[in-house]
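Work Package 3 (structural annotation) set out to generate three-dimensional models for the target panel prioritized at the project kickoff. During this period the team completed the workflow that converts sequence records into discrete structure tokens, so that structures can be stored uniformly alongside our sequence database. As a representative example, we reproduce one entry of 326 residues exactly as it appears in the project archive.
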Amino acid sequence: MTGAAGFIGSHVVDELLARGHQVVALDDLSGGFRENLDGRATFVQGSILDVGLVDRLFDEHRFAFVFHLAAYAAEGLSHFIKRFNYQNNLIGSVNLINAAVRHEVRCFVFASSIAVYGRAASPVTEETPTTPDDPYGVAKAAVEQDLRVSREVFGLRSIIFRPHNVYGERQNIGDRYRNVVGIFMNQILQGQPMTIFGDGTQTRAFSYIDDVAPMIADAIERPQSWNQTFNVGADQPYSLLELAMAVAAAMGVPPRIQHLEPRHEVQHAHSSHEKAHVVFGVRPQTTLEVGLARMAAWVRAHGARTSAPFEGIEISRRLPAAWQTR
């Protein structure tokens, strides 16, 4: 498992352990936290860019399955950190695919993203053409294509999940570039207004972690899901203004909102999950109110977090003022 100490990754680790699997948990802790991990997992601190480490782990453990969830998932920022984005999200993935092919793993599970669809009309289905609107989505789409080619040439079986706007306990709320629910809650804890790029009419479907992680873990036990791609997440879209109101209610404070200059982003993005329902069954979804309440309780217990600004900006032209290093 890569990205195992991160938000989604650590929850998938929990699900795999609960199903009786042995898990080797690789993470460089650039965005995750060691305390997120269940102690029953074998933790290895390191990067998927370290080819020697990747190869040693595959040699030593002879993995039957690979779950690849490591990524730097800041879509908006990816325009300004192209080299970093492609190194971490594409080249690192290729290192894992190479090792998986050489060691003939049974199946490679990849966490892609709704970002591969770009500005396609919502709700998108798995058959919607992938036309990414940012370098992050481009990298995810490229990994998907490499997995397709690796299946055709080498017989590497894979399962691709395209989650979207996942939130919940263990999310890194100190990250200023991604995870809007966490950003809002962290701002509230610090007595700041919730900041929204543009007018807040952008819509997303916000997916609670307990509705996503179990399905990803279940996939390796369902051979009918192998060599398939699935959208996974919530069905009901909300505007960012509606989300801000709901987050404020969950945190027990009056809503305070500050509008920032609009940035380059998709206006509306949510997906259909009919294909997942066929293979994994129709599962009850956690309502936004209930999910936010659970996350808010966790956030209040753990307190505000801060993180340093991204220091490796490669293109400063049109970088939003809120993201300027300070």
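The first strand starts at residue 24 and ends at 27.
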